[in-house]
Amino acid sequence: MSKPLTLDGNFNEIALKQSVPIVLAVLFLVSILLLIFFGTSANNNIYIYISILGVLPLLYLMIKYPRIWIYSIALTNIYFFYDRGDEVSLIEIILAIQYLGTLSIWMFWMLLIKREKLVDNIADIFIFFFLLIILGNSIINYINSNDMMIWVREAFNLLLLCIYFPIKKYFTEKKELMTLLVIYSIVVTASAFLHFNTYLKVLQGNIQYAYELSQGIRVNQSLFTAGAVFGFIFALHTKNKILSLILVVFTSVSIAGLVTSFSRTYWIILIIEMLIVVFYLSGRQRIKLMAFAFITSLVILVSLLYIFEDKSKIMVQLLERRLTSAGKGTSDISIQARFAEYEQEFKGIMEYPMAGQGLSKKITYWNTLESYTSRVQYIHNGYIYVAYKMGIPAFFVFFFPFIYYLVKGEKLARKESDVFFRILTLGSYLAILMILISIFTATQLSSREGNFVIALSFSFISIAMNRAKNTEMHDG
After folding, report:
1. Where are the beta strands (DSSP E) in 163-283?
2. Is residue 436 domain-shared with residue 345, that is, in the same domain?
3. Partners of 363 in beta bridges
């Protein structure tokens, strides 16, 4: 039976010992946002250069206070996950420097200067190898005369997995992990409200019918799903009523964000994962789960009806339509359109099975859903995406760490003696399972939030594995 998790003392520790790093990270975030504002609003190019140079303090943070460096990256995720422009903006360039610029310097410093060990297990070797495959894919992309700017954006999203290495190195203690979880709960909540705000702007127009919103605003689904799962699990294991209420509210916000994305796949995944969670709970916690599920559903329903007011009927119609079409299976016209797309992609895989077509290669196929020929960059299947863009060998290299951490995470979720780390590995295991299921219908591997969810999940399980190994060595 799982013992209740007492988080009171841990949060007091965070307030006393971790407040300074968080405040410094927030101040740094504010300064970066001010530099971005002046850089984008001023005509003088000097402000643009100042904005880029404003990222340089991250190098000092990276060396002196590496956890503050990670906190600052986490906080800027609020904008990074929200920005969805087709054109490469100055802010995107600055964030690319903040993320990959500092990460590449950090890895160079750790591997070649300090000569520290970053590889803890076989999954790390595969991840490193995949990073090299991504860089090598630039040659394939160029040879196939694909758009190199699109390649840069695709590679940038995939290379975000690099953050896995500093997180698992510096966040080994419970209080540090809890601080990071608190920051990401803020990121999820802010992302959800930005999501609601976008919908409100759309609904303020002359929208009369549900089909006008049929495409939905399908962003951050993996972020909202992971947030909901983690929120529920932590709420079920804490005995502090106030903290439990906060976690239920956070979970409700996460689910509301997911519901309004109109992504049927993730709705089903969330339900499946809540059923899986039941097997890791005590009898009392299962009753608590049902109570929380009822309260959460009520809060979401009332909130959506209140927020969208007279447009709520349209929202309900669309939700009903999405649920109805989900039951049609392969007869659903959108599914048939996917099959037509997959047929062309399989031909492309057979054409270049070893190295792929390049990350920015577009697909041309007859879209049965819209009745015209589509030429698109996006592939509606993550497994096909990797094989088509980077080749079959890259497929096996990339997905090995998923299976490795899925198995290790599930084992730790059952056998870990420390309640906090058991919760952490259970949530991470379910997040990886979510990604593996969802990429049958969407390429979360090329999404910003998807790769952060993957990196965090891998990191948390790796940290728990190293802790369990050290505990066994100490006991021995």
Report:
1. none
2. no
3. 376
Backbone angles phi, psi at 107, to 5 degrees: -65, -40
SS3 at position 357:
coil
Q: Distance between the two ends of the chain, CA-based, in angstroms? A: 26
Q: What is the pTM of this model?
A: 0.84
Predicted pLDDT of residue 214: 46
Same domain, 214 and 129: yes
Domain that holds residue 338: 329-382
305-326: b (≥16 Cβ within 10 Å) or e: eebbeebeebbeebbeebeebe
How far, in Å, CA of 198 to CA of 219, rounded?
Answer: 11
* CA 435 – CA 201 distance, rounded (Å): 30
Cβ within 8 Å of residue 226, ≥6 positions away: 427, 430, 431, 434, 453, 457
State how far the Cα of 359 lies from the Cα of 348, in Å rounded to an integer. Answer: 13
Q: Is residue 2 part of a domain?
A: no
Dihedral, CA of residue 465, residue 469, residue 472 and residue 476, to nearest 10: 170
- Please write the tens of the pLDDT for every residue from 267-324: 889 999 999 999 998 888 888 888 888 888 887 777 666 665 555 555 565 665 655 5
Q: Give the whole-angstrom CA distance, residue 23 versus residue 32.
A: 14
Same-domain pairing of 465 and 430: yes
- Nearest CA among 455, 421, 459, 408 for reference residue 435: 455
Q: Does pLDDT of 462 surpass 90?
A: yes
| pLDDT the model gives residue 430 | 97
Q: Is 340 found in the same domain as 220?
A: no
Residue ending a domain, among 349, 366, 382, is 382
**83, pLDDT greater than 80:** no
Please report, as a single letter, which amino acid is at residue 90.
L
The token pair at 168 is: 């698992």
User: 3 lies in a domain?
Assistant: no
Domain assignment of residue 66, yes or no:
yes
CA angle 137, 142, 143 (to 5 degrees): 100
Neighbours of 361 (CB within 10 A): 23
Residues 370 and 246 in one domain: no
φ, ψ for residue 222, nearest 5 deg:
-65, -35
Q: What is the pLDDT of residue 163?
A: 94
Could you tell me the two tokens for 329? 């299976």
**Structural domains in the chain (count):** 2
Residue 24 burial (CB count, 10 A): 15
DSSP bridge partners of 376? 363
Residue 157 lies in a domain: yes
Token pair, residue 355, equals: 């190295």
